Amino acid sequence: NERLDMIRNLFVLLTEMRIRSFLVTDLSNGNVFVENGKPVLIDCDSMQCCHYPGGGVTFPFGHPGVTPDFNYLKMRSNEHFNYSVAVMLWQLLLEWDNPYTQNGRDCQTCSSVDSAFPFTVSGMVDGITTREDKLERWQSLPKSLREAFCKTFNMEKSYSIGEWFELLQKSYENFEKQE
After folding, report:
1. If pLDDT is split at 50, 70 and 90, which confidence band does 159 have?
2. Where in 103-167 does DSSP place strands (E)?
3. Please, are residues 89 and 164 in contact by the beta-carbon 8 Å criterion?
4. Is the distance from CB of 19 to CB of 26 less than 8 angstroms?
5. DSSP H or E run through 23
6. How confident is the model at residue 148 (pLDDT cuts 50, 70, 90)?
7. What is the pLDDT of residues 49-82, one digit of tens each?
8. In b/e form, how buried is each residue of 78-112, taking b as 16+ CB within 10 angstroms?
9. Would you say residue 15 has pLDDT above 50?
10. What is the pLDDT of residue 104?
11. CA–CA separation, 14 vs 164, rounded Å?
12. What gap in Å lies between CA 149 and CA 143, rounded to an integer?
C-alpha cells in the first residue's frame, strides 16, 4: 500500500530526527512534501534542536500543553511530539485537518483547549454532529486505530511512533486478509 509506505518512510525520518535530538511538535500534512516517494519536512519553525526550544505551534497541530501562552523558552517533551504525530496521522488517514469540534460543530482552527474530541470508538459523542462523510470515514477505520485516536485526543494515552506504526501495520494486514 502506497500510503502505508509513505507513512513508514515519514516515521523513519521522524525517528532519525528524534535520535539526533530534533523534536518537531507542530506536524501536519501541510508540513510534509513527498519527493520521489520520500517524505521531506518543510516549515519546521517549531522544531526543537538539542537543548534549544522551538518556536510557535499552530493549533490544532500542537499538544494542548503548548497553548498560545506557552513560554517559547520551555522545552517540549516526547508527549508533545507524540501528539503531533497523532494529528498528522489523523490527517493522512482521514483527510481532514482538525480532530476537534467546538460547540458541537466542526471547526478548522479550534484546539483541544477550547473544544472537544467528538468521536467515540463506535460513533459520535451525544449532542455533537458532523458531516455524514466524516462519520463514515471514522467508522471505516479499524477499531484499534479508533481506540488509539480516542485515547490520544481525550488525553488518556500518548502513543509513540513505534506504537502507531504497529497499529497501522496490523490494521493493514487484517484488511488485506479480508480481501
Report:
1. very high
2. 105-106
3. yes
4. no
5. strand 22-23
6. very high
7. 776 666 656 556 666 666 555 556 666 777 878 8
8. eebbbbbbbbbbbbebbebbbbbbeeeebeeebbb
9. yes
10. 54
11. 13
12. 10
State the residue for C-alpha cell 485515547. Answer: 151
- On the question of a cis peptide bond just before residue 64, with omega within 30 degrees of 0, the verdict is no
DSSP 8-state secondary structure symbol assigned to residue 136 = H
Alpha carbon distances (Å) from 83 to 27, 36, 66, 78, 132? 9, 27, 11, 8, 26
Percent of the chain with pLDDT over 90: 11
Per-residue pLDDT at 153 exceeds 80: yes
Exposure string for 129-147, b = 16+ CB within 10 A, e = fewer? ebeeebeeebeebeeebbe
Q: Cell 522544531 identifies what position?
A: 47
Residues contacting residue 63 through CB under 8 Å, at least 6 positions apart? 25, 57, 76, 79, 80, 83, 84
Q: What is the mean pLDDT of residues 158-162?
A: 91
Alpha-carbon torsion angle 89, 44, 25, 74, nearest 10: 180
- Tell me if residue 103 falls in helix, strand or coil: coil
Give CA–CA dist 177/179, Å, rounded.
Answer: 6
